[in-house]
Amino acid sequence: LKPEIIVQKYGGSSVASPVLIQQVAARVAETRREGANVVVVVSAMGKTTDGLLALSRQVTDRPEPRELDLLLSTGETVSSALLAMALGVEGIPAVSLTGPQAGILTDAMHQRARIREVDTRRIHHEIARGKVVVVTGFQGRGDNDEVTTLGRGGSDTSAVALAVALGASACEINTDVDGIYTADPRLCPAAKRLEAIGYEEMLELAQLGAKVMHPRSIELAQLHGIPLVVRSTFSGGAGTTIREVSTMSIEYVRRVRGIAHDLNVAKITVTRAPDRPDAIAALFAPLAAAAINTDVIAQTAPVESGCDISFTVSNDDLPRAAEMVSEAARSIGAEGVLHEGHLAKVSIVGVGVQATPGIAQRMFACLARLGIRMAMIATSEIRITAVIPRAAAAQAVAGLHAEFIGPAEIAAAHPTKRAAALA
Ligand code: ADP
Ligand code: ASP
Ligand code: MG
Prior knowledge:
Blueprint lengths: L4 E6 L7 H16 L3 E6 L5 H12 L5 H25 L4 E4 L6 E3 L8 E4 L2 H8 L3 E5 L2 E4 L4 E3 L5 H12 L3 E6 L20 E3 H9 L7 H10 L3 E5 L7 E4 L6 H4 L4 E16 L3 H13 L7 E3 L7 E8 L3 H15 L3 E14 L2 H4 L3 H11 L6 E5 L2 E7 L3 H12 L10 H8 L1
Helix pairs in contact: 1-3, 2-3, 5-7, 6-7, 9-10, 12-13
The site of adenosine-5'-diphosphate has 19 residues, from loops.
C-alpha cells in the first residue's frame, strides 16, 4: 500500500530565521512521524526577495529578465537547503530540490512564468528512498531551459501545482495568519476568520490585492478541485479551507464575503482622444508590448471633441506607463495625458454582490459618509471596486467592513499586528 503524500508550504515569514527554520523542521518531522510522506515547499527567508530586487536595482534599472530570475531564485534555494539540513538534525532524512530539479516546468515568461506541468519522477524517486522532499517555491525551468520565477507570492502556486501532480491527499498553506479573514487583519482589526471560502470568491479577493494567496494557486486548485487549508505555521488552529462552497444557501449567497485592498495603484487619463477604435487600441498597444497590466478602464461618452479614457496601472509602473501613453497620445492626436499616483483600490467581494439590490449605493454612501473621494469605479458579477486616495485606504476598509460584514466586535484581535502595520 502506497502511503499518502501531504504537501506543506511554508511562507517567507515562517522561515525568516534559522531558529524558525528549526521550528518548521520540527513540524514537518511531526507530520512525517505520523506516517505520511511529506513534500515541503518553501519561500525565501523573510524579505529576502525584496532584498535581491533592491540589489539588482543598485546595478541596473533594466536587468536582463533571465539574470533577474537567476538572482531572485536564489532566495528559495537558500531556505530549502537550510530546511533539509535542519530536518537531518531532527533525524529525518531529507533532500532539497530546486524547481528545475523537482521537474517544475514553466513557459519562458521570466518574472511571471506559468507552470505547464510537473515531471514528478525525481520527487517520487526521493520519496521511494524514504526522504522528505523540500522543494523551492517560486521557481521552475522554463521551456527556454532557463530558471524562471512565477511572480511575487508565487510559492503558493508551486505548492498547489505539486499537490495536483502528486495526487496529494492534502495541501496546507502555512503562513503568518491563522486563516483567510474578511479583510487584511493587519489593516482592519475587526476582520474575522472564515471557516471556509469558495474558490471564486478567494480568487477575486486575491486578484484585487489580498496578498495572502497567489491568484494562480487558486485557479489551479479550482481547476483540479483540490481543497487548500490556510493556517498559521506556529499557532495551531483549524485555519480556513478554500474549496467548492455550495451556493444553494440564501444566507451564503446574500453576503459580502470580504474586503480587499491594493495600495499600489495609479491612474492615467488621456483627454480628448479621437473617438476611433484604432485610436484607443493604439493607446494600449505599447503597454501590452511592455507587459504592463492595465486594470480599471473607463471611457467617457464621446462628444465632438473626442472622449476621455482613464485606466489604472500599478503605481510602480506609473513612470514608464505615463511615458509610453504620452507618446501614443501624441501620435493619435489626443489633447493630453494626466496622471495621479498614490492611489488605492478597495473592493467588496462576494457572490452576493449581484444578488443583493442596492449594494453599490450602500458602498458609495459609506465612502461618502467618510468623505472619501472616488477616482474610479468598476464592477463585476462578484465585486465592486472603488479607486480612492491611498491615504484613505485603511479608513475605507474599516468603514466598508463595518457596513457589510459586521461591527468591530473583536477590535482587539490583532493588536500587535495592527501596531506593526501602522508603524
Ligand atoms: P507568506 O510569506 O506566508 O506567503 P504573505 O505575506 O504572502 O505570507 O501573506 C500573508 C499576509 O497576507 C498576512 O500577514 C496578511 O497581512 C495578508 N492578508 C491580506 N489580506 C488578507 C486576508 N483577507 N486574510 C488573511 N490575510 C490577509
Ligand atoms: N519569495 C517570493 C516573493 O517574495 C515568492 C513567495 O514568497 O511566494 O514574492
Ligand atoms: Mg505569500
